[in-house]
């Protein structure tokens, strides 16, 4: 089982982690509500998870154009 990290904006795969390296504290540390977990984490087939996060490129764009991404997020 693996956890894949994918950019929620450009869908670039950022990386993968073996599931074993993530413990239950992972979500607690990120202080996500259950609702947020649903939107950030996709439960895929075969017990794999995809975490929707943000890549470095989009992070930079986000800092430059915060309004653009805020708008896009609302539309989605
Ligand atoms: Zn990205």
Give a short synopsis of this structure.
By secondary structure, the chain is an alpha+beta fold. The protein has helices at residues 25-29, 34-40, 56-64, 66-75; strands at residues 2-7, 13-18, 41-43, 49-53. The mean pLDDT is 75.
Task: Record keyword descriptors for this entry.
4-stranded mixed sheet; alpha+beta; binds zinc ion; 4 helices; globular; Fin
Describe what this molecule looks like in 3D.
This protein has 76 residues and is of the alpha+beta class. The protein has one domain. It contains 4 helices and 4 strands. Helix 3 packs across helix 4 (66-75). The longest helix has 10 residues, at 66-75. The protein starts with a strand and ends with a helix. The chain binds zinc ion. Residues 7, 9-10, 12, 55, 57-58 line the site of zinc ion.
The assigned structural class equals: alpha+beta
Using only CA atoms, what is the Rg?
13 Å
What's the count of strands? 4
Based on CA inertia axes, which overall geometry fits? globular
Molecules bound to protein: zinc ion
- Count of folded domains: 1
Mean residue pLDDT: 75
Uncertain ranges: none
Largest sheet: 4 strands, mixed
Helix content: 40-55%
Order of helices and strands: EEHHEEHH
Span of the ends, CA to CA: 29 Å
Number of helices: 4
- Main-sheet strand order equals 2-1-4-3
| Proportion in β-strands | 25-35%
């Amino acid at each position: 089982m693996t956890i894949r990290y994918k950019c929620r904006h450009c869908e670039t795969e950022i990386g993968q982690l073996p599931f074993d390296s993530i413990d239950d504290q992972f979500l607690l540390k990120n202080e996500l509500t259950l609702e947020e977990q649903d939107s950030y984490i996709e439960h895929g087939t075969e017990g794999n998870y995809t975490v929707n996060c943000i890549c470095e490129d989009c992070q930079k764009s986000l800092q430059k154009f915060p309004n653009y991404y805020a708008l896009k997020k609302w539309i989605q």
